[in-house]
Amino acid sequence: MKLKLVLAASAAAVALSTPALAQEIPVGHLADYSGATSDIGVPFGQGVADAVAYLNSQGGVNGKKIDMDTVDYGYQVPRAVSQYKKWSGGDKVAAIQGWGTADTEALITFVARDEIPYFSGSYAGALTDPNGKGERSTKAAPYNFFYGPSYSDALRAMLMWAAEDWKAKGGQGAPKYVHMGANHPYPNAPKEAGEELAKELGFEVLPAVQFALTPGDYTAQCLTLKDSGANYAYLGNTAGSNISVLKACDTVGADVQFLGNVWGMGEDAMKAVGSAADGVVFPVRTGAVWGDEAPGMQTVQAISQSSSQPQDYRSVHYITGICSAYYMAEAMAWADQNGGVTGPNIKEGMYQKKDWVPAGLEGVCLPSTWTAEDHRGTTTVNLYRARVNGPTEGAVAELMSSDAMNLEKVTTIDVPRKPEWLGW
Amino acid sequence: MTAMTPSGDFKTTYRADTTIFPTVTSRNFAIVGIVLLLLCPTFMDRYWLSILIQIGYLSIAALGLNILVGFTGQISIGHAAFFGFGAFASAWFSNSFGVPVFFAVPLAGLLTTAVGMIFGLPAARLKGLYLAIATLAAQFIIEDFLARAEWFTGGVAGTMAEPFSIFGFVFNTDTRYFYVVLAYMVVMYVLATNLMRSRDGRALVAVRDHYLSAEMMGINLTKYRTMSFGISSFYAGIGGALYAHYLQFVSVESVTILFSIQFLGMIIIGGLGSIMGSLMGTVFMVMLPEMMTTITQALSGSSIDLALGLQDNIAFLREMAIGLVIILFLIFEPDGLAHRWKQIKAYWKLYPFSH
Amino acid sequence: MNTSLLLQLLINGVIVGALYGVVAMSFVLIYKASQVVNFAQGEFLLIGAWVCWWLLTTWQIPFIWGFLLTLAFMLIFGVALQVIVLRPMIGEPIISVIMVTIGLATFFQALMKWMFGVFAQPFPPIFERSTINLLGLQVQTVYIMSLLISIVIMVGFGWFFKFSRMGLAMRATAFNQQVAQSLGISVRQVFAMSWAISAMVSAVAGIVVGVVNGVSSALSFFGIKVFPAVILGGLDSIVGAVLGGLIVGLLENFAHYIDSQYLHWGNMYQVAPFYVLIIILMIKPYGLFGTKDIERV
Questions:
Q1: Which parts of chain B sit beneath pLDDT 70?
Q2: Three-state DSSP class for B344?
Q3: Which residue, A105, A232, A225, A103, is CA-closest to A167?
Q4: pLDDT at site B354
Q5: Which of A365, B87, B271, C95 could pair with B338 as two cysteines, CB 3.0-4.6 Å apart?
Q6: Cα B313 from Cα B320, distance rounded (Å)
């Protein structure tokens, strides 16, 4: 008798909870917590996860909770694709928060077919053309979104700055530019775009230098770099291997102005490299870094404090992760009021406003615009210079507050939204 | 442990001694097993179906490696490279030449066989350790080639693969694809069993057991060692091609050394030189990470999880588990699961007189 | 022809090659003494470097004490590994023994990632001046130290095998285990000692690389570079292993030179040694200086 009662009660509980479940929005989250890019995959992934948890604690999207399934795919494309198959079949997810370039590009066709908006951590130029109409774009990517300037545009901005910098420093003759990175879709993404613009700007473009995505001994590469007499070198990899290169090049005495990519530099990397990181110029995607004053920073602080893994300093990657999640959530809120949280509606939601920032993150995320023709959210690039003034032993928070390290704003560059640069 | 046949079942001809199934009952069991598998999609959810499909294509490749390592005694640390090659080859045939996928899969198998023979020819002269090192080098060289050959693999960006189709019928759901993989699996396993009862199969075993004696008995060592490499590559190629059309995307990242080690792990756990062992080992290797995920999820939030960070490090825990089971099996159960299965069967057959 | 770059790369090749030589030497030591092909040699470097790093950063002890403690740990670790894992494998076929060491490599690599993460961690600075100038090439002091340490280790090995009782016992065991045993040498002890010494020497190499590049899983790749080295130098010669290591170091840097100046392919640096390895094995199936086993039926 008792057993029956329990069974009946639990059946009733299940029946009651089903409508509540329907109020949840399923979202997939691919993160790299263990692979080649986990050095930055961890803070970004945490930013996304913490932001979603915080949103849920504040009532979710119009009262609907986001049910996010976080999966560590170790930066392995096959694992990302097989995980995607799980999410896209049966009970389809409404959107996906993704990560790397190789897997995002591999999934372009799949997400377009299944109509699942895909917010990637990859900013490859190939993801910015929703209709495949750009002169150099390879295929249409209608469901791909990301927050920030594309890798190509960021590199273009740095090259524009470098051309000015060369003149300002009184350099003689044509400056030499070299692309450095692994033979991998992510460092390769802006390679041609950068080399072509460098030629237009009067740089002499040297043959690319290759180094793997993993840390290692790159003395040989640095000797070649030094010998080639390069003046500006783009580091296409993530911080993990850039650290090794910066150190090795410092040792052999290569006098090069390094240009980092958005993922290639950050507070943690500066600490790990030490004095060799001093002077590296790199793009920062947010309007404010930790410790800055901005209206939206309160939200960021609150998200960080509610995190299951509290820390007293959050890197630029963490804050960017929050932006990525908030843009998605706001598009979902619009979709919810305009026919339900489905893929096509979320996509529409992204197009609704011009130069918009998600509510609560004013001054943190940079105003971005997505249209049905152009998924380059922003082409404004803030360039910062890494400054390391002393030994880098101790916690990042201490180092940043004691001025042993800091991020110095160099300039803001508006890359023109040229139609021929769409999707490339 | 000798094979146990029921009393009264005396073999009077060599032919009868080398049938695929030793007894009628074992044949019936095999048929019932296949019928049960055929019914699987009706009651299994997507998760289990995808696991079965994974087991399917991996076990084909594992069987190939077992023919090379377990039956011929040639070690190979580069099996994943051939698996990956087959995957790319099949995608290449269907993308670049418009070959229907139905034909692209066996064609990919044949092309991989050719590549395997090219590597097998010099390998036929090498033994033991030197062969291990040479195949390790082959792993790195093929990996590098695949990352570079854009015309063939799409370079580091990888390539899309069409879903499996025949006469306009597309096998694009897991339920449909399950039958494709099952059909291939049955055919490939029957072929292997058949091979092992032929003269060629016995020659391979002779090469493994004592190659000098085998040579003296008139077995051409170079021929059989190369052939073994070819066969194993064929199986790897078919397995890889099935994988390509299941995932519909192939990347050079699936061709890592860890994957090669996983294949070796499968056949060691299943049992070197056992056809059914290859399948058992694959099941074990596929289920192991799934089980670990389940366990860590069950422990999630508990003090053990917080202290050790299990959830965040699941990827490393899986790798550790792969290494650990290989070591444990080699020390405590060198003959693998197939051997243990035989012992269990014998125990019940002889019950209560088992020793 | 860019001679100054080539010269600098070749000097770099000698420095790295000497380290490969040290690792190859400790690989050969195990092979000679216990007939085990150790695919986990690179993980010895990894473990040694991480343990030392952990001692220095967590416990803030002086480098020399951390270094000695690491060596002590590796001694125990090597013996334990041999006794627990490798001893039961005596008499098993070579495939099984190879697979056990591959299993160990997989296990320890993942264990180190689990315990210490995947980021490269820098060692605290050890020398006052971090670089000195050598023939126009800025070389880290630790690299010079590593070259010196490598030479000291090599000379030490030479002395050990020529004069010490344990060394002679090891050579006797390598020559013929049964005869050695009948002469009163404890073969078990020799096996365990060879693993211990090999682990310690590898750890030294690991610490040196760690100080230069930071400690990371990339260290385990040294264990793979050992194979071209021993195939070049011969599996059963310690001097050959050192030479092989030097050749591989030079080869890598030469390949990088050709690549960067003419081919522009990108990663010849990493793959070139494996091509050479395959070519050598195709011509000489027992390596360049290896001896062909005579087998009897």
A1: 1-9, 306-307, 354-355
A2: helix
A3: A232
A4: 61
A5: B271
A6: 11
**HEC secondary structure over C157-219:** HHHHHHHCHHHHHHHHHHHCHHHHHHCCCCHHHHHHHHHHHHHHHHHHHHHHHHHHHCECHHH
Q: Can you give the pTM of this predicted structure? A: 0.89
Q: Structure tokens of C157?
A: 């090995």
For residue C275, list chain B residues with Cβ-Cβ distance below 8 A. Answer: 137, 141
Cβ separation of B134 and C278 shorter than 8 Å? yes
CA angle C84, C86, C87 (to 5 degrees): 75
Q: Which two tokens stand for residue A279?
A: 């002077």
Distance CA(C196)–CA(C77), nearest Å, equals 7
A&C contacts, CB < 8 Å:
89
Chain C residue whose CA is closest to A393:
C124
Q: Which of B156, B254, B316 sits opposite A185 (nearest CB)?
A: B156
Q: How far is C127 from chain A (nearest CA, A)?
A: 14
DSSP codes joined into one string, C22-37: HHHHHHHHHHHHH---
What's the whole-number mean pLDDT along residues C100-129?
Answer: 85
Using alpha carbons, select from A125, A103, A141 the residue that is nearest to residue A423: A125
Distance between C113 CA and the closest CA of chain B, angstroms: 7
Q: By C-alpha distance, which of A379, A376, A371 is closest to A416?
A: A379
CB A53 within 8 A of CB A333: no
What is the predicted ipTM? 0.88
Give the phi and the psi of residue A341 in degrees, each rounded to 5. Answer: -80, 80
Please count the CA atoms within 13 angstroms of the CA of B343 that sit on its side-chain side.
8
Cis amide linkage into residue C228, ω under 30° from 0: no
Amino acid occupying residue A330:
E
Residues on chain C touching B296 (C-beta within 8 angstroms) = none
Whether A197 and A227 have beta carbons less than 8 Å apart is answered as no
Q: For chain C, which residues make up each domain, given as ranges? A: 23-225
At which residue do the structure tokens 């920032």 appear? Answer: A357
CB nearest C277 (choices: B133, B212, B265) = B133
For residue B318, what pLDDT is reported?
A: 87
Please work out, in degrees rounded to the nearest 5, the angle formed at the alpha carbon of residue B321 by the alpha carbons of B315 and B324.
145
Would you call A387 helix, strand, or coil by DSSP?
A: strand
What would the two tokens of residue B14 be? 């060599």
